[in-house]
Amino acid sequence: MRTRLISILSLALTLPAAGQPGLGGVRLAAEPIEGTASFGALRANAWTLEDGTQRLSLERDVRLDLGGYDLTADRAAIWIAPRPDLGDEFVQMFIYAEGVDTPLAQPAVAVTADDLRIQGVLALATPVVLATDAVDPTPASGAFEDRATASLAEALADAEPLVPLIDAQPPAPAPVPTDALVRDDATEELQPQRPPAEPILKPEGYVTLAAERVTRVVDDDDRASVVLTGGVHAAYTIPGEDRVLELTAQRAVVFLNDNSDPSGAIGGVPASGIDGIYLEGDVIATDAGYTLRGPRVYYDVAQDKALVLDAVFSTYDQSRGYPLYVRASSVRQISRNEFVADRARLSNTAFARPNITLGTRTVTLTREPRGPEPDSPPRTLVDAKGITLNAGTIPVAWLPRFRGDPERIPLREISFVNVTDSGGEIRTRWDALTLLGFESRDDLDVSLLADAMFQRGPGLGIEAEWDTRVRRGGLLTYWVIEDSGTDVLSNSVRIERDGETRGIVRGEDRKTINELWTMRTEIAHVSDPAFTDSFYEPLAETGREFQTRLHLTRIEENTIFTLEVSGQLDDFTPNEYLLQSQGYSVERLPEATYTRLADDLLPGLPGRITYTSQSRVGLLRFENYDATPAEFGFTSNARAQRAFGINANETFDSALAARGQTEDYRFRFDSRHEITADIDAGPVQITPWVTGRVTAYDNDFAEFGPGTGDETRVHFVSGITASTTTQRVIDGVYSRALGINRLRHLFTPSVTFFNAVTSVDQDELPVYDESVESLANGNALRLALEQTLQTKRGGPGRWYNANLLTLDAEFVFASDDSIGESTIGRYDPAQPELSRLSDFASVSSTYQLTDSVAVVGGTIYDSDEERSSLTTAGVLVDHHPGLSSFVRYRRLHDQDSTLLSGGFDYALTDKYDLNTTVTFDTEDSSLQTVNAELLRDFQSAVFGAAVTYSNVSESTSLGIVFQPLGQGSATRVGGRDTSADNRGSPLGG
Fold first, then answer.
1. How many CA atoms lie within 13 A of 151 on its CB side?
2. Among 251, 424, 658, 738, which is most exposed with the fewest C-beta within 10 angstroms?
């Protein structure tokens, strides 16, 4: 908290420091503005220089308030000097700050910088104020002050001496360049025919001029001109209109015609009396809608033209807050709202050397209303030819033409990847709507993917997302033309390609028909079994099932009706989990389901006895995959047997047919009914339930195995659960280090017993749906204990309850007639008949040590095998907002796999971010994968580099990404060894 408010005027009593540069005797090239100035910091040094400049050096929690602009910084060096040439209330300031941010500003105008120079001239309404804890009157020194002084020296190189207000010997008029006038034929060659445009300076307007020195000159032909030096400010206004065109420069010459009176006051010259205006030296022309800046500008008022040499044009869209800057050897203003630039560079940064530039031969910029209403916010349209994308001064991409809104830069991302075996690749992502000339839409986003793969060939694709009031969905399609490269699969297998065209199509759409009905459609097609693993590995590992389907849903109160038609377009599936679990898909042609949830059987006692039912009927068919493990990269029998239980060249279809699972159509009817009671017995909650189920088929499954001749199965379950919850509050427990203030222990034990009987065992039926055919039978007892330890965190006035520790344990005992389908046991409390029964115990825990440190872990113990089936553990540490790290452990006994992984995400500075992940296989004592990414934020782009090493696929990948801002958030590089994996997909879940 600041304890001292000190007027800067009182600090002038300190002793002057000799030998340090200041602002005395110079004039900063800045236009005066009205406002206030105040500074704040934990610590401050304040002293006075020999020339009268007041010096401040601030550090820690620095705040700068300058003319209404609020900034924060890590450190700041400030020079303040009076400007007697302007008046007693004027001061000029130079500030050098490091670690700058604008946390209170709107995102569109926010500023962050490692170091920033600020200079200006203020007309102060109140004295400058410093808020600080302590003031040291001795001069500051050190590396920071050296950098600040060097920055001031650079700024003073552009400053001018502070001279008297009246110059007895005015300087000669600045020469007007002979090429300043713009011929009509020069613009006709660049512009199409169009209606007359609004002139730059209407004849009925007036121009007011102000400068430190004003000299009138009359030549031999009695042509009058006015020479202005020492800081020029010109304003053009039209009576009755709000528009004001302001011109500032260091020097200017105004050429008058016969309609003006050279002896009259210069404060209000009619535009009709001016032939031209020539300005030079930091020229800025603005009307608040756009800004034109350059070292030399000539306005030919008579011809209604303007020429800017070595120019910078900028505009700012108020509705989107997106800046545009154009740099060119010359810019011609041919009307108030239209400009033409030759040999220009487009950019969304205002620096002299932009981080990203778009070079072009010719650019035409036009201002027009954004909407159909004349008073709608304006926008700038660009027509550019011969565009090249430059990284620094190196051209890296080219477009023949761009027409449209420059706020929508068509290039969204460009990345370079080099992978062992599969070669180098250039990946690009473009705004497809912009390239096609369509207007941008908030409810539709379409990206064009265009890749150049040096060994494979070209890759083209589309990614689209839409989200309207009534529908939502996405589309992903990507194709490699005449692929002659090498697939590097996740299991390290290499597959050589011989020039076939390969790709993927995956799309979905969810439409709200009305308040009751919704319709969901999906389409999925992949050219070959290895494509998804090679190019979109996450879709193969965890993506939703690849199916083409139509799904209708009707929801009203507690009833749900669905109708689904679905099937496969391919004779295989890219989903690895389906291959490893069942090896087939199910077609529904169609299937209808009706569900009622929790109907009250005793309306007078709501919730005491409820009834839930679900019935379905449909025509089903198994679609066994006519593909082999070898086509998925499992080329050895040992690998194929371990992953799928069949040999490498044996088809999934033949293996399923051998066990009697055919692709015949089956009509199935299934109906499940459950009655549940809720009984309060003092502190104990007792929940008995009974479930009856009947499933009928139009034919038996005699070919599936012995004892499967029944066409109907009846399944019956009855059970009871008893549970209670107790709590204990422990006062007087407090630890600031551990974040503990009081404790509350919640203790919830429960016991469940159920019995399931069936007319057909689950291993005697092929499984169309796990929730229908794969039902448990026999007896089971479950003992469970859930514990939660809570505390209060936050501090006085902001306390909140937090879970400090959770510890859940369960023990399941199953009868010998229960059929175990998995080596990892699982109990389903919602529908116990869907449990994977065996004798097992599971324990899981979460320890939230502090708000920044969390420890999780769990294990499942197989009592029959007397070993742990699955063990996981992890630690997540959020060190501070710029640094987080994690460590994760996983042990899967059946696969004899133990993996230890760790990594961190570290914001090195405001601009640099580094993250890395390492996975170590403890069984082989070797690194499995190493991934590292480095991102650099520029004002107008994100640049990143990544490297990935995979011991599994025996490959190394190097990647670089370059993403212009203004088109969504920057994404991480990824650095993976696939062509499109880093692009992401709206359909990946």
1. 20
2. 658
